[in-house]
C-alpha cells in the first residue's frame, strides 16, 4: 500500500516539469536561432550531435564564464519551479568542468545561480540536470540560461536543452494613464557635457564638400561639448592635421570652444612589445624595465604638439580600453605589472608626474581607467597609486550587463553599486554604440538615462560622431567614395540629440519619477534655475501613455515638446501645458524644454 502511494505521487508530480519547454530551438535543428554567444563565438555543428542532425559549439573562449546562452526573459513565472537539462560534450579536452547557470538581473542586484554541474569529456555526451525557482525584486531586466565552466581555450557542444515548467502568464495591459513628478529641491550631480568621438575617418569629413554643413549638424545642432580623438602623434600626422581642422571648424560655429578629450589606442611601434601598434603591451628597455618614462615623454610631446597647433587638451586618457588586447591598435596594461604585461598604475602615475612638471595647474585633466566596462574598471581603480591625480572615473559599457546592449535594465543594479563604491569623483562614460538603427536609438536613450540616474554620470559620449560609408555607423554616415556630397543622419543621432541639445554643461540633475513601468524620466535644471529639461522615454512598443506631470519647488511658465519616434526626428510637436496630460507615444523619446522659476525658499 505504501509503495502504491509513492507511485501515485510520482505520477502526479512529474507533469509539473513537463508543462512546456520554454526554449526556442532547444534541439539546435534550426541552427543557432534563439541562441547566442556569451563572450565567445558559437556555431552550428553537423558532425557532433546527441540526437537529430545538429548541435551548437562554443569556441574562441578566453575565460571559464564564456559559453552559449538563451534569454528566458518574460517566459518564466515568479515563484515557480523549473527543470533545466541539457547534453554536453567537449571538443578538445579529455575532461573538464561544465555547468548550467542562470544569470538574472533585477532592480536591486545581478546574480548567477548554478543549476547543474558535472564533468564532461570528448568521447561521450554528458547530461546535466537541475531545478530552478525564479525569484526577483522590482523589475527583471535579464534572465538567461547558459552553459559555462570549461577552462579557457576548451571548445564544447550542447544539444537537446530543455527548460520545462509553467510558462509566464500573459503580461497585464499597461495602464495608459500615469503620473509623474519633478522636484527641483532634490538635486544631484553637476553635468559636464555630452560628447562623441572622431576616432576614425577625419580625412573623410575634412574632404567632404558639405563639411561646414556637417559641422553645424554635428557640433552646433547637437550642442556637443566634448570631442574625443585618438593620440596619433608620431604615428599618423595626417590624422592629427585633420582632427585639428575639425576642432577649428567646430569652434568657429560654437559659442564657446569645444572641450577636447585625447586617448591613446596605442603608443608608437617603438614603444610596443610587438614592434607594432597592434596587440602587445609596453616594450621593455635594455635593462628589462617597462618603458614608462618613454611612454610619458611621448604623451608630453603629444600635448605640446596640439597646444602649438592651438588646441587645448582638456581631458587625457593614457590608454583606451587597457584591459584588452586586440588585432587593431591597442596596448594592454594590467592593473599592476607582471613579467609579461606593463602596469596601468605605474604608467598613469608617471604620465601625471611629467604632466604636472611640464604644465602645472594647466595640465589636462586625467581620466582613468577607460576600460571596456565599469565592472572591469574596479581592479584598475583599486590599484591606482594616488587617486588624487585622477579627475574622473571613466569607462565604456561594452562588457557590462548580464543581458547585453539590448537589456539596459540589466546594468542598473551594478551601476548603483559602482557609483556608491567610487563616489567622490565625476563619472564619465566615454564610448558606447552599436548599429545606429531605430532600435539602437531607443536603447541608446535608455542607456543614457540609466547612467545619468543610477550612476550619477557627469558626461556621456557616443562612440562615433561620424564614420565612412563602407564602415557604416556613427551618428552620421558619410557617403562613399571620399569626397562625395552625400551623408546619412542615423536615427541614433536624434535620440542622442533629445538629451544633448537640451542638457548643457553645469546643469544639475533634479529628482524625476513616474509610476508607469514603461516610462523612464530624467530631469536637469540650468545654473540660473530658470530652465528645466525633462527627457521621457516610452519603452512600450505598442502603448501610448498619458502622463500627468507635477512639479515641486519650480513654477512652470511655458514649455516646448520635442519628440523622436519612428516617424519624427527630434521635432517640435507642440507647447507644453502643465495643466494637461502629456501623451508619450509608444517607442519614443520626448523632451520637454520648460521655462519657469525656482520657488522662493528653494
Layout: helices, strands, pairs:
Layout: H1 2-13, E1 20-21, E2 36-38, E3 41-45, E4 55-59, E5 67-71, E6 81-90, E7 95-105, E8 110-121, E9 126-133, E10 142-148, E11 156-165, E12 177-190, E13 193-197, H2 202-206, H3 211-220, E14 226-230, H4 237-253, E15 259-263, H5 292-308, E16 315-317, H6 344-359, E17 365-371, H7 374-383, E18 392-396, H8 412-421, E19 427-431, H9 438-454, E20 459-464, E21 466-468, E22 476-478, E23 487-489, H10 491-500, E24 508-514, E25 519-525, E26 531-538, E27 545-552, E28 554-564, E29 571-575, E30 582-584, E31 588-598
Parallel strand pairs: 12-27, 13-14, 13-20, 14-15, 15-16, 16-17, 17-18, 18-19, 19-20, 21-22
Antiparallel strand pairs: 1-11, 2-5, 3-4, 4-11, 5-10, 6-9, 6-11, 7-8, 7-10, 12-24, 22-23, 24-25, 25-26, 26-31, 27-30, 28-29, 28-31
Helix pairs in contact: 3-4, 5-6, 9-10
Amino acid at each position: 500500500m505504501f509503495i502504491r502511494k509513492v507511485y501515485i505521487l510520482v505520477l502526479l508530480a512529474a507533469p509539473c516539469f513537463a508543462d512546456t519547454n520554454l526554449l526556442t530551438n532547444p534541439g539546435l535543428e534550426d541552427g543557432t536561432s534563439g541562441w547566442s554567444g556569451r563572450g565567445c563565438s558559437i556555431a552550428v555543428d553537423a558532425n557532433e550531435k546527441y540526437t537529430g542532425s545538429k548541435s551548437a559549439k562554443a569556441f574562441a573562449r578566453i575565460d571559464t564564464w564564456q559559453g552559449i546562452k538563451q534569454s528566458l526573459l518574460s517566459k518564466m513565472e515568479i515563484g515557480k519551479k523549473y527543470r533545466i537539462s541539457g547534453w554536453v560534450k567537449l571538443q578538445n579536452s579529455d575532461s573538464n568542468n561544465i555547468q548550467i547557470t542562470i544569470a538574472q538581473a533585477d532592480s536591486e542586484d545581478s546574480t548567477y545561480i548554478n543549476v547543474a554541474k558535472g564533468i564532461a569529456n570528448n568521447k561521450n555526451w554528458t547530461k546535466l540536470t537541475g531545478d530552478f525557482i525564479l525569484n526577483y525584486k522590482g523589475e527583471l531586466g535579464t534572465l538567461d540560461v547558459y552553459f559555462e565552466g570549461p577552462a579557457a581555450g576548451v571548445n564544447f557542444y550542447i544539444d537537446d536543452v530543455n527548460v520545462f515548467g509553467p510558462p509566464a502568464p500573459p503580461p497585464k495591459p499597461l495602464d495608459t494613464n500615469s503620473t509623474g513628478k519633478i522636484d527641483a529641491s532634490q538635486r544631484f550631480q553637476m553635468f559636464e557635457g555630452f560628447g562623441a568621438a572622431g576616432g576614425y575617418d577625419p580625412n573623410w569629413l575634412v574632404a567632404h564638400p558639405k563639411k561646414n554643413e556637417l559641422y553645424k549638424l554635428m557640433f552646433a545642432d547637437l550642442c556637443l561639448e566634448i570631442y574625443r580623438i585618438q593620440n596619433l602623434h608620431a604615428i599618423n600626422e595626417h590624422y592629427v592635421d585633420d582632427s585639428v581642422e575639425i576642432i577649428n571648424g567646430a569652434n568657429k560655429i560654437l559659442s564657446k570652444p569645444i572641450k577636447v578629450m585625447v586617448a591613446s589606442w596605442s603608443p608608437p611601434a617603438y614603444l610596443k612589445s610587438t614592434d607594432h601598434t597592434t596587440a602587445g603591451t609596453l616594450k621593455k628597455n635594455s635593462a628589462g624595465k617597462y618603458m614608462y618614462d618613454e611612454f610619458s615623454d611621448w604623451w608630453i610631446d603629444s600635448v605640446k604638439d596640439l597646444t602649438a597647433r592651438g588646441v587645448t587638451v582638456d581631458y587625457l586618457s593614457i590608454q583606451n580600453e587597457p584591459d584588452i588586447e586586440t588585432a587593431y591598435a591597442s596596448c594592454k596594461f594590467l592593473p599592476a605589472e607582471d613579467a609579461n604585461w606593463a602596469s596601468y598604475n605605474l604608467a598613469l602615475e608617471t604620465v601625471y608626474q611629467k604632466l604636472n612638471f611640464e604644465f602645472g595647474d594647466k595640465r589636462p585633466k586625467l581620466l582613468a581607467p577607460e576600460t571596456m566596462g565599469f565592472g572591469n574598471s574596479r581592479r584598475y581603480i583599486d590599484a591606482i597609486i594616488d587617486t588624487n591625480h585622477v579627475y574622473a572615473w571613466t569607462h565604456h559599457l561594452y562588457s557590462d550587463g548580464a543581458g547585453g546592449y539590448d537589456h539596459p535594465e540589466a546594468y542598473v543594479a551594478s551601476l548603483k553599486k559602482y557609483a556608491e563604491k567610487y563616489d567622490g569623483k565625476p563619472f564619465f562614460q566615454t564610448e558606447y554604440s552599436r548599429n545606429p538603427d531605430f532600435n539602437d536609438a531607443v536603447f541608446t536613450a535608455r542607456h543614457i538615462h540609466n547612467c545619468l540616474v543610477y550612476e550619477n554620470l557627469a558626461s556621456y559620449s557616443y562612440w562615433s560622431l561620424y564614420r565612412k560609408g563602407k564602415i557604416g555607423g556613427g551618428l552620421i554616415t558619410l557617403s562613399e567614395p571620399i569626397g562625395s556630397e552625400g551623408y546619412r543622419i542615423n536615427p541614433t543621432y536624434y535620440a542622442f540629440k533629445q538629451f544633448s541639445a537640451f542638457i548643457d554643461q553645469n546643469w544639475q540633475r533634479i529628482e524625476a519619477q513616474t509610476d508607469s513601468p514603461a516610462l523612464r524620466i530624467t530631469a536637469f535644471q540650468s545654473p540660473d534655475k530658470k530652465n528645466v529639461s525633462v527627457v521621457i522615454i516610452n519603452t512600450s512598443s505598442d502603448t501610448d501613455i498619458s502622463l500627468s506631470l507635477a512639479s515641486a519647488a519650480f513654477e512652470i511658465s511655458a514649455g516646448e515638446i520635442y519628440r523622436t519616434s519612428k516617424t519624427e526626428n527630434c521635432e517640435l510637436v507642440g507647447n507644453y501645458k502643465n495643466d494637461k496630460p502629456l501623451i508619450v507615444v509608444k517607442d519614443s523619446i520626448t523632451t520637454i524644454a520648460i521655462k519657469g522659476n525656482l520657488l522662493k525658499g528653494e
